[in-house]
Each structure stands twice: as C-alpha cells, then as structure tokens.
Amino acid sequence: MLRSAPTPPPRMALDRPLLIVNPRSGGGLSESRWARLAGAVAEGLGPFDTQMTERPDHAQELAREAALAGRHLVVAVGGDGTLNEVVNGLMAAGAPRTTEVALLPRGTGGDFRRTLDLPHDFTKAGRRIAQSQAKPVDVGLVKYVDHSGQPASRYFVNVSSFGFSASVASKANASSKKLGARSAFLGATVRTVFGYSNLDVQVSIDDAAPLRRTVLLGAIGNGRFFGGGMKICPDAVLDSGSLQFVVVGDLGLGAIATKIHRLYDGTHLKIDRVDGRQIRCVSVAPAEGQAAAPVEVDGETPGTLPATWEVIPAALMLRA
Fold first, then answer.
1. What are phi and psi of 14, to 5 degrees?
2. H helical segments located in the chain
3. Bridge partners of 204?
4. Most buried in the list 28, 79, 161, 293, measured by CB within 10 Å?
5. Given phi > 0 = left and psi -120 to 50 = alpha, else beta, which region is 239?
6. Which of 249, 271, 250 is nearest to 261 (CA)?
7. pTM of the model
8. Mind listing the pLDDT tens digit for each residue in 101-159?
9. In the chain, what are the helix, strand and coil shares in percent, each to the nearest 5?
C-alpha cells in the first residue's frame, strides 16, 4: 500500500531545489566536507534544501515524497545509482512531468554525467542547472526476475545490460573504488574473464519472433556510457523515443583482451559479431539448459533473466 502524501512544506520551500545527497558516494562524505561543497553549489545554483540518504533506496523514498508534495526540482547528488533511485521515486509518484530532475555528479563512475557533459566543479554544475530549461527525455523500464525469484521492475535513464557486463558490475560493486571507477571496473573485468562462459539466449526485438544467439553481453542504452567510461551505446539519444540495443556476440578471451579499448571510444560497433540498433522493446530469455544470467541496471544487479526492456518516451523532465 502506498503511503499518503506528506504534508506540503511552505510554498517558498517547494520553489527551492531539493538536493538528495548520498553521503557514501565518491568515497564518502563527512558533514564538514559537505558544508564546503554546499557553499560551492549555492554559489552556482542559489538557495536549496538538503536531505541526506541513510540506507539503500532511501533516495527513491525521498524523491517520491518530494514529488507528491509538489517540489519543483529534485537534484540527485551522487553517482548513477543515486540518480537511478531518484528517477524511480519520481516515476513512482506518478508526476514526473511536474517535478524536474537534475544531477550533481559525485559518484565513482559518473557515466550519465558523461552523456550530459556535466562539469565536475560543483559551482559550474550548479550554475548549469540554474540556467537550463528542463527538457523531456525518455526513460527505460526493465522487467526481470529478482533474487528471490519474483517478478520485479525498475526504471533507468542511463544503461541496463545482461551477461558479462552484469557479472563485472557485481564484482566491481563488491570491490574498493579508491583508485577510481575505471580501475575498479578493469580489475573486475579481469577477474570475470577467467571462468566466464558466453550466454545462449533467445532474443525478441520489437515483438518479432525470438532468435537464438550466443552473446558475451547485451546493453540497452538510453544514455551512452557504462562501466566507468565505456561508450557502450554510442548512438543513444535521450529524447529519441527509442533505446539503443548493442549485442556483443560470441567473442572469446583473446578478442576481449585486444579489443576492450574500443568500448571506451565507441568504435566497437565496427567489430565483427558486434551490432547495434534502435529499438522500442526487447525481450531476452535464457535458452533451454542455460543457467540464469544477471541483469544490471545503472550499475546495480537487482536480478536475472528473463527480462524485457522498453522505452517510455518523454517521461521525465531533465535539467541540463
């Protein structure tokens, strides 16, 4: 049962941006450190309110409550995971077109920041948000099987994937990111390569008859980057009304080792057995006898195949 809408704050507060801050992003954030960063944000953005997250999915709860209360602008302060929670909260509120969303990037990965070309400097990023007009962007929805075996779903604005990339994300999230996201993901990639077997899956694109494929990974992108800077979906556009579906086919260890750099510059679509296309919907299921494979959503791994991805055009108002 959904909770009732919270008591609206004063009108002036609703007109101020609400910053939902993940204090665990970017290697941790103390109160004194946030006080210094808040000053830099205010210099560019102007007055704002702040709420700190205290647990997983708390940003989703706070964003939903803010939207139901009528908050005009919600700003995710953190990484792609924090933004994902905020987006899910706004979509759950049923009023994503009346509450705008923005990002102040402070995570270790920062892949959606790359698509938006946001500056690292908080004053410059805050000024960009203050001076930008919100524009409608698409949102992806993935329906999958959660780790308890139950149907589940999640919205995303950046990239969702399955297969090798999801296994890497799981290992990267369990490792230290003190040396940065790229180092964490490269290390997780090396650890995943050994002992990994490519997947046999049934793929149905835009309700066409399913085709069997052997794949290393598949990525469904609204944004262009994942994995700490890999340009996996180079032709994805946030307001195209479609998602880019990239399939890396049956490539082995040698190909991965010699061609992984091409994922960072977005030239991998020219490699044999790699293809990409614009889609509105895609369903992927393990082939008969194939073990369950993980599904990744904006850097998290909430469940497994079978899964269906679809685009919801112009579902969210995004600043910057």
1. -65, -30
2. 11-15, 31-45, 58-69, 80-93, 111-116, 122-131, 164-173, 181-193, 253-259, 261-265
3. 283
4. 161
5. alpha
6. 271
7. 0.89
8. 999 998 666 899 999 999 989 999 999 999 999 999 999 999 999 999 999 999 999 99
9. 30, 30, 35
